[in-house]
């Protein structure tokens, strides 16, 4: 009996935490207060593991080409090609696995001599306690590397002033799709 009560209390407490976290005050006054309190705020570490699905050709493209240079067509490394993407992030590698967010931004082929992309995008969370919060990511993804390391340079709401590391590893690729496994670790307040 008592055990059940404790469990119920824990469940209602965690619901309370989720609700308060979902309603972060974004008014300038509240942001300033949050900022001033920073020296006393405790740092937290959060980890994520998810899969990123990009369809770059054929039907249902999620990453169309938005710009390229005249020399791109002759370049063996696609130098100058820029794509805008809005790619689903899912818990498992299957395309119909539960979606937890989107990766939204651009990447561009940035090397004249190897296949390497410059990335600039946000992980935008759409479920659970992180719903509405985002992490900003930049970095270089070279085809020659097994693990590509990207930098988490900031974030919004729960992830204000976040810093961290994301590693990306190709899980699957075809002539239309690439599925990338991401491991993310961030420090935030
Ligand atoms: C991808 O390859 C398949 C054959 O494996 C082909 O039928 C299809 O047209 C190709 N798609 C693109 C967009 O190149
Ligand atoms: C594209 O999306 C439509 C609608 O969701 C779906 O029926 C179709 O199978 C998709 N095409 C591919 C190649 O996944
Ligand atoms: C790029 O190619 C187009 C079409 O061939 C041409 O009109 C334009 O002058 C070229 N631009 C440059 C910067 O070479
Ligand atoms: C996430 O937040 C949006 C906007 O506040 C809301 O419409 C949506 O229902 C939320 N989704 C989940 C799964 O909580």
Automatic annotation (TrEMBL):
Q: Which GO terms describe its cellular component?
A: apoplast
Coiled-coil region(s):
none
> What does UniProt give as the signal peptide span?
1-22
Asked whether the UniProt record includes Secreted among its keywords, one would answer yes
Where in or outside the cell it occurs: the entry states: Secreted, Extracellular space, Apoplast
Write down the Gene3D superfamilies for this protein, in alphabetical order.
Allene oxide cyclase-like
Give one GO biological process term: phenylpropanoid biosynthetic process
* Record flagged with keyword Signal: yes
Q: Which domain of life is it from?
A: Eukaryota
What UniProt keywords apply to this chain's record, in alphabetical order? Answer: Apoplast, Secreted, Signal
What PANTHER family does the annotation carry?
NUCLEOPORIN-RELATED
Role: Dirigent proteins impart stereoselectivity on the phenoxy radical-coupling reaction, yielding optically active lignans from two molecules of coniferyl alcohol in the biosynthesis of lignans, flavonolignans, and alkaloids and thus plays a central role in plant secondary metabolism.
Record family assignment = Belongs to the plant dirigent protein family.
Q: How does it assemble?
A: Homodimer.
Question: What is the name of this protein?
Answer: Dirigent protein
Q: Which gene encodes it?
A: LOC107805809
């Amino acid at each position: 009996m008592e055990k059940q009560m404790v469990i119920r209390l824990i469940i209602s407490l965690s619901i309370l935490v989720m609700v308060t976290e979902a309603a972060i005050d974004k008014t300038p006054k509240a942001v300033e207060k949050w900022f001033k309190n920073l020296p006393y705020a405790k740092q937290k570490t959060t980890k994520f593991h998810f899969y990123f699905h990009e369809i770059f050709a054929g039907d249902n493209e999620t990453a169309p080409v938005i710009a390229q240079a005249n020399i791109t067509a002759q370049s063996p490394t696609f130098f100058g090609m820029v794509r805008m993407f809005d790619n689903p992030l899912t818990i498992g590698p299957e395309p119909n696995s539960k979606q937890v967010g989107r990766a939204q931004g651009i990447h561009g082929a940035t090397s004249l001599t190897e296949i390497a992309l410059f990335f600039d995008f946000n992980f935008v969370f759409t479920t659970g306690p992180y719903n509405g919060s985002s992490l900003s990511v930049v970095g270089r993804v070279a085809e020659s590397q097994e693990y590509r390391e990207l930098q988490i340079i900031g974030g919004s709401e729960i992830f204000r002033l976040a810093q961290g590391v994301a590693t990306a590893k190709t899980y699957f690729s075809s002539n239309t799709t690439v599925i990338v496994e991401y491991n993310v670790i961030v420090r935030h307040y």
